[in-house]
Design goal:
Elements: E1 3-12, E2 15-25, E3 30-34, H1 41-49, E4 56-61, E5 67-70, H2 82-86, H3 91-109, H4 114-130, H5 132-145, H6 160-174, E6 178-182, H7 190-202, E7 206-210, H8 214-220, E8 223-228, E9 231-236, H9 239-272, H10 282-294, E10 318-328, E11 333-344, E12 349-353, H11 360-368, E13 375-380, E14 386-389, H12 406-411, E15 416-419, E16 422-425, H13 426-432, H14 437-440, H15 449-462, E17 467-471, H16 479-491, E18 495-499, H17 503-509, E19 512-517, E20 520-525, H18 528-558, H19 575-601, H20 609-639
Helix pairs in contact: 3-4, 3-5, 4-19, 5-6, 9-10, 19-20
């Protein structure tokens, strides 16, 4: 066992989070923590990490254990670059790689510096001896997969979402003994989530995971702990097996409760009879009845109720015609969207996907009227009333901000609400959204991320929208709330446009996808799984065409003779060409070393062979181009002697 919690208990104010918990994290552990928002999952993860103390009980841990926790919020705010931050925990290899990167940047600015070129060659040899090329390749791959490209950018200049990704990359690259992840898929696009799922599947250390992504839970975990109402229950198996065990457990508890109530009714009926009608041994039986009545009642499970007033919607919901958007930065214009035309119908269930930064949230802003397009126009139907759940729940920060009370926030929309034909108060509606009266007068800042999200949903639905714009609605929500939201969207009478990285949610709620591809929105019919099938087929076709092209080029090259231009026979190397030849002399051996590394890596069983093969093909092509150029410059140099 790597980490053990023995008889562990902790609370949050007057609320017990878990009590008398025994939990052991073993080698190659795959443990999922689930439960409602605010139940204590993140607290338990910090306790396992040794960051948060227990109120009672003991935490035991091997002293040499390397533990990495990636929480929902990151504290990265340093002057370090992204690369430096990610490599912080990689020891001697980190120092070698940082030195090599610094020398490379200096040579790019002073390519003629002989001393720098010599130092770069020495650094290359040291990296080869230490096997640091592996670290460089892994670092670049992880960062690229998580959507981070500018490795020299200071961490303090990044947004919260990008800092979270830097923290995740740092944890993955360092490969700790125990990896603790709290909602790691937040702020990632769908393709990055799939890559992370595959990475975790091959990770050799112990993993404890909190996530709302049910596909990740089902694929990765083999043990679950559910935290709810101060209890922590353990289940063997993945998420699907947990659900089966949960149903059986609830049926068993319901049966036991029914039997208990039957026995108690009989005993109470006996007690109501007159003393003469009772048998002997009255005292013992009366005492047993008193004990049955005093037995703690099992907690009545509160169910989230989510509905909205239906509002009539016409034949047209949203008309987009030739919509384009360009953003200006210091260097040039960035075209996010070009010539988008589509008519959203009242029954549409549309998913918007694409890489981070491609313009998904911006498109929702355009539809909501929060931003104007550079070209084209967006027209809403006359009866359209939009409900917009933005990614960061900005509505909570308006006015008095997070100091407002929960009840005040909802009453900004309405004091009384029509709920199923009955008038109810805002307080009663909040109870249906699992905010008890004791919590309704708390300030917003005391709510968990998931509770804030649920509250924003509550306020949005009060206003009876008939078009829903949902930007990453699954972020921070617990699985129970997601299931209720999915059912609500099934019955919602209106248009729904969703931006989400949650593949399960997209499969469950949408029937058409628009994917951002090079500034254009490409349409695909079906849910996310259908979209993936289409892309896989498309990639296979492209790969077949690419192979055919390589074969043709190879045949053409064999039929050609290498000839030097007649002008090159008599001229000398220019200063710039001489400098380029020196750089090639250094660069070609390094490229060959990387090629050898990739050729060895492709035989490993725990790698993505298709990805490594793609990298190797690109590297071989680059080496060929460099060699051709080296031959050309070398022959010029020899002819001038």
């Amino acid at each position: 066992m790597l980490i053990s919690l023995v008889n562990a208990s902790t609370d949050f104010g007057i609320k017990n989070l878990f009590k008398n918990l025994d939990l052991h994290v073993n080698k190659k552990e795959r443990l999922g923590l689930i439960g409602p928002n605010g139940s204590g999952k993140s607290t338990l993860l910090r306790v396992i990490a040794g960051i948060e103390p227990l109120m009672e009980g003991e935490r035991r841990c091997l002293s040499s254990l390397r533990i990495s926790l990636v929480g929902q919020e990151t504290s990265y705010n340093s002057e370090k670059s992204i690369l430096e931050e990610v490599l912080e925990g990689c020891g001697e290899k980190r120092k070698l790689l940082l030195n090599f990167s610094q020398l490379s940047r200096k040579i790019a600015q002073n390519p003629e510096d002989e001393d720098l070129l010599k130092k770069l060659g020495q650094a290359s040899e040291l990296m080869d001896a230490a096997g640091a090329w592996n670290l460089e390749q892994q670092c670049q791959d992880v960062l690229r997969r998580l959507g981070i490209k500018d490795l020299d950018k200071p961490v303090k200049e990044l947004s919260g979402g990008y800092r979270k990704r830097v923290g995740l990359a740092a944890a993955l690259v360092s490969k700790p003994d125990v990896l603790l992840l709290d909602e790691p898929t937040n702020h990632l696009d769908a393709s990055a989530v799939e890559w992370l799922q595959n990475w975790l599947d091959h990770y050799e250390g112990a993993l404890v995971l909190i996530t709302h992504d049910r596909y990740v839970l089902d694929r990765i975990t083999n043990r679950m702990v559910e935290i709810n109402n101060g209890e922590a229950r353990k289940y063997s198996g993945n998420y699907r097996e947990f659900l089966q065990q949960k149903v059986e457990q609830e049926q068993s508890e319901a049966s036991t409760k029914k039997k208990f109530q039957g026995v108690l009714r009989k005993e109470l009926a006996w007690l109501r009879q007159g003393p003469k009608a009772r048998s002997t041994k009255q005292k013992a039986r009366i005492q047993r009845i008193a004990e049955m009545q005093a037995k703690p009642k099992s907690h009545v499970k509160a169910n989230l109720e989510m509905n909205s007033l239906s509002r009539r919607i016409g034949k047209i919901a949203i008309e987009a015609e030739g919509v384009g958007l360009s953003l200006q930065n210091k260097e040039n214009n960035l075209d996010l969207l070009s010539d988008f035309t589509y008519s959203f119908s009242p029954e549409d269930r549309v998913g918007i996907i694409g890489p981070n930064g491609s313009g998904k949230s911006t498109l929702l802003d355009l539809i909501a009227g929060k931003r104007l397009p550079t070209s084209g126009k967006i027209k809403l139907g006359e009866t359209v009333h939009i409900g917009y759940l933005d990614q960061h729940t900005n509505d909570l920060n308006q006015g008095s901000g997070l100091n407002r009370k929960v009840i005040d926030f909802v009453e900004e929309a309405a004091l009384r609400i029509d709920h199923g034909g009955k008038q109810i108060t805002a307080s009663q509606l909040l109870e249906k959204f699992l905010f008890p009266p004791s919590q309704q007068h708390s300030p917003l800042l005391k709510l968990s991320g998931g509770e804030k999200r649920r509250l924003a949903l509550c306020k949005m639905l009060i206003q009876a929208p008939n078009v829903l714009l949902l930007d990453e609605p699954t972020n921070d929500l617990d699985i129970q709330t997601l299931s209720v939201l999915e059912d609500f969207l099934d019955d919602f009478k209106g248009c729904v446009v969703v931006v989400s990285h949650d593949r399960y949610f997209l499969d469950r709620t949408i029937d058409r996808i628009f994917n951002f591809e090079n500034g254009h929105l490409r349409r695909y019919e079906g849910n996310y799984s259908r979209f993936l099938d289409h892309k896989i087929l498309e990639e296979r076709n492209n790969e077949t065409k690419k192979r055919a092209k390589i074969v043709n080029n190879s045949q053409n090259k064999r039929g050609q003779e290498i000839k030097l231009d007649s002008k090159n026979d008599s001229r000398r190397l220019s200063f710039k060409e001489a400098r380029e030849l020196k750089e090639l002399d250094l660069r070609l051996p390094m490229l060959e070393k990387k090629k050898i590394y990739l050729e060895k890596k492709i035989t490993d069983s725990d790698v993505d062979i298709s990805e490594i093969s793609h990298q190797l093909a690109e590297l071989i092509e680059s080496i060929q181009e460099h060699e051709d150029r080296w031959i050309e410059l070398s022959e010029l140099s020899e002819s001038a002697k």
